[in-house]
Amino acid sequence: MSVTTAVGQLAAELSAALPAGIPSPSQHTWYVGPFPLRAYALAILAGIGVALWLTRKRWVERGGKADDVLEIAFWAVPFGIVGGRIYHVISTPAPYWGEGGDPLRALRIWDGGLGIWGAVALGAVGAYIGCRRQRVSFAGFADALAPGLLLAQAVGRLGNWFNQELYGSETTLPWGLEIDAHPGVLFHPTFLYEMIWNVLAAVALIYLDRRFRLGHGRVFWLYVLFYTLGRVWIEMLRIDEAELVLGVRLNVWTSILVGVGALIAFIVVGRRHPGREETVQLDPVEPEQADAARPEPGH
Asked: For residue 262, what are the domain limits?
């Protein structure tokens, strides 16, 4: 038996041993009395919980107070959800504003559709407000949050699996995804690709942070860089509706531009602040200093 024949037989045996494809869940909503439990919402909430757990642990290691995380999340999470939805509706307008679209669907977040860049941008605004209220470093908090944010995105992708959405082009790979609307056809499980990529990127961030003691926002900029590197090739596999710019999906261009910006920011910040912050606590304004800063009457 030749080597080529043996390899061919081994490949055939492995293919036969593997499942014919990844089945999609047949249900994405369950009811407890009149109240719906939607898989998409549960995945988002589970992701937020994972992010809070890891961020709290990393924040304390950096010298922060554990209670700060929940206080900041109180501002960051709702801002992020609103921002994510706004970006999704703008970047994929057809289902809402196109022919036969329904503008009211823009409010149905539970049907899926949160754009990561809108979530990060507006979530950062909320986090900044929370950090200012807690008198802590915004850059330091972003560094503590970064790996947890990747894990939250990974868990959140399970919601897309339950909703049978955002899958890729057709494939003959044994891990192809089955979609009820297209029986007998397998598709790239882009939700799974992004889950795996995000988990690996989170592990890499934690390792690099500990190895090089990164600070001043550099872990966060690495998060953006790592995520965009994965998002470019994963996005190009997807076949769902999206705005095209020069024949390329808008999210691909966005990922490239944001990734380049993150790389530049990482280098610039590293040159200015090569180490980690000595403390993430901002000096509170003492009453005596506040009184001294006030102008005298008549001045």
From this structure: 37-273
Query: Does the pLDDT of residue 12 top 80, yes or no?
Result: no
Please tell me the distance from the alpha carbon of residue 88 to that of residue 105, in angstroms, as a whole number: 12
Going through the chain in order, the beta strands assigned E by DSSP cover 29-32, 35-38, 177-178, 186-187, 244-245, 248-249
SS3 279: coil
d(CA 236, CA 168): 8
Predicted TM-score of the model (pTM): 0.84
pLDDT tens for residues 47-83? 999 999 999 999 999 999 999 999 999 999 999 999 9
Residue 8: inside a domain: no
Q: Please report whether residue 293 resides in a domain.
A: no
Residue at 146 is within a domain: yes
139 found inside a domain: yes
Residue 38 phi, psi (nearest 5): -100, 135
